[in-house]
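Box S2. Input/output pair 1.
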Amino acid sequence: MTQSDKTVDLAENLWKRLRSGKPPSGRHPQICGDIPMAIKRDGTWFYQGGPIGRIELVKLFSTVLQRDEEGGHWLVTPAEMARIDVEDAAFVVVEVRREEGAENTDAGPVIKMRTNIDQWVDLDENHTLRVEEDSTSGEPSPYIALDRGLEARLNRASFYQLVDWAEEIETDDPAKTAIGVYSHGRFFKIGTVENDEK
């Protein structure tokens, strides 16, 4: 059986479980432990060591992916749940757009982000931005919150686009200025800069 055949079999079994309805007797999904599936930092999904080449299958798996409070990632069907290995975030933002005067935003800008599975999400109060900095290199790693506890990491080009749109606002610390972007009427901080001493 080829890697592609194995992935298709896994997808077919998952689809059957998804259509099976609620767990017997109303029980919670049974924990089945880890399965040999992983998502690498670049957003590529692997099964049994080989990449899943069909985006349709990746999209199917993504519909049942959840992240728990400890950061673990699980495929959850009505009857079963199994943990998978995620190297960083489950998805990668590959494109960002800014729309001026979009509907329902009081004419303010709206920033939209597209993930590597073609999911569009607005930067808003439910899908917020966070930026982590490497303690050694200082390199930023930006993420947008998705549904079901998941996140998507912005690729370099997407982050640079946000930086290009960034504005400065004052902070409680007179020695620092916050830089960030506005979307849906909210300010999302990208980082801070030191103010020049006068």
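Box S3. Input/output pair 2.
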Amino acid sequence: MIVSQYVYFALSSKRVSAAEITARLGIEPDEIVVRGSRSASPARPARHRWKITCRKPGLTVDEQINRIMDRLFDHAKRIGELAVELDEIDGEPGASMLQVVRVFEHPDGEEEYLASPVEGLEKLAGQHQLLGWHVDARVLEFLRLTRAELDVDEYAYG
């Protein structure tokens, strides 16, 4: 099996731009999305989005999440306050999101490593080193403080 995966934390809004979110937080995003940049009617994407991402290959999902936590945890309370404001401005919840995206059999993904880490033990196929992940107490606290939802998308390529 081949696996491609990345993680991002996002603040999004129908009315508040990523530039305004950046100005309010004082944190430069890794990526931004502009509402309506692909289609004006209906607006696609449907929301402006400010994103901190980890696309580093070779890391498990929890390692990717921890890279984001290392960058944002100290700002979690302020992010949560802004998320509440964005929800109020938009009149709906969902401004804050931790997103995991995994694509199986993607040609740019990582092959399963079949060598055994311990001499004399056999590693069986189907035990891909990137499968399986967990959310620890620090991540749960970040999600609470930032009022973030956790969304996991998994796709088969093609």
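Caption for Box S3: The mean pLDDT is 90. The longest strand covers residues 2-13.
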